[in-house]
Amino acid sequence: MADYSATPFVGKTFGVTIDKLNKSFDGVPVLKNVSLEVRPGEIFVIMGPSGSGKSVLLKHVAGLELPTSGRVLIGSHDASDPKTRERVRLALVFQAGALFNSMTAYDNLALYPREHRLCNDAGIRERVMRALQILSLEKAAEKYPSELSGGMKKRVAIARALVMEPELLLYDEPTSELDPVMSATIAEIIATLRDHTAVTTIVVSHDRDLALGIADRMAVLMDGRICAVGKPAEFQHPADPGIANFLNPTIDLKHPRFRQLENDNE
Amino acid sequence: MKPFHAILEGIGSTVLLAVRSARYLNTLPRQFPRFIEQCYLIGYTTMPIVTILSFFIGSVLALESGHSMEEAFSAKQFIGTLVGLTMVRELGPVMVAILVTGRVGSAITAELASMKVYQEVDALVTMNIPPERMLVLPRLAAVLVMMPVLTTVANLCGWYGGALVCKYTAFISVQPEAYFEALKRFMHMSDVWHGLAKAEVFGFVVVLVCCNIGLSTRGGPREIGAAVTRAVVVSLILILVLDYFVTKVLI
Fold it and tell me: What is the per-residue DSSP string for A127-183?
């Protein structure tokens, strides 16, 4: 079991305001008038089916995409302004980890403090080993990403974010491609890290169990629009049939298209 | 209209990349290990192929010119001049630039395109580590240091290749002393500087173009391959087009 007691307390964190955000790629709208308010210190989960624009929305918060119109504010700083990254320590845990393949896990974690000259080599080592220890990754320190399992890669990516001592922590599909046990572990890590660091956490996921399990508040994004915002309890039995179908999908095996497949096989 | 637009966009983004990289020049001293690594990759790993090819280019040049000059003008005593000047002013820098494109430029594009496609570049951006500072600047600095070295080695190998052919080919039979005497008599330091200046321009442009194409790659593994091909083709075209204009300026 991971030891979270060494997790650094950040003490400073930011809320996020998304105001009438629109984004189009080659004239095709992906985000349509999205407005959201994420409060400082909360875990906010954005759920939605594949292709609904969740990751694009998260990239706008991280400043990796520029809005077609509207804006994203981190505290009072515009997320699309490159200088915001100098004022706000923002960490994004990518869906596939986005670890630097030519570096060991240790060097992946050490890159941020080294590049920003936060401390000397001994300080960097202490900081990195503490993050690795929190996520039970001490033995993976000298391994390259290609030598790690999917779950370990995700944990290294989270450890890399932790080394930054972030003031805003973003997760893009943290449980995708993981088995249920590892998904539950990652969910526990996300919740516990927030409890220890009080950092504002935005999670993008289509994992219903993760969202209902860790969110303070959540939103459902469908076809580029925010359909609902509320506490997880409000999503247990949603009134909207579209949201209900997304959260509790049912497959009608007697549907004509399955009958057709049956006939084709015969 | 679309290809024209794409060319303008390519030129614009390449120039912007150069400007953005230049903004981090003051960080170069603390990126010394990265700079040395790039010097090794660009200079040391390209050296063997530069040595072999330029030796044989000098040899062929001496062989062809020896045959023609003896038959047409009875002027084989000027072979050294011809090989020396051609290598220094033209073939040395152009051949080295072409080899750097194939050996190093393609690898740079493949690496950066792969980093871009697998979101490693995005990870750098979110960590407030500008990719221009970490990925582009050390490569540009290294190529500026290594191109004159590679070109000088190419020139020397070409001269000695020519000298050997002149000595041991029966129908030429020019001794090395006479060969190098002719080489020295008509060559000036300005010719050497002329060639090195060309090499600097070619090397800088090749690495900049390859970095830019790598960093603007979108898609998956197939696009990485396409980016490498595009980077090599664009670099080769630029080397030959720039060769004309730089020569015109320097003459």
Answer: HHHHHHHHTT-GGGTT--GGGS-HHHHHHHHHHHHHHT--SEEEEESTTTT--HHHH
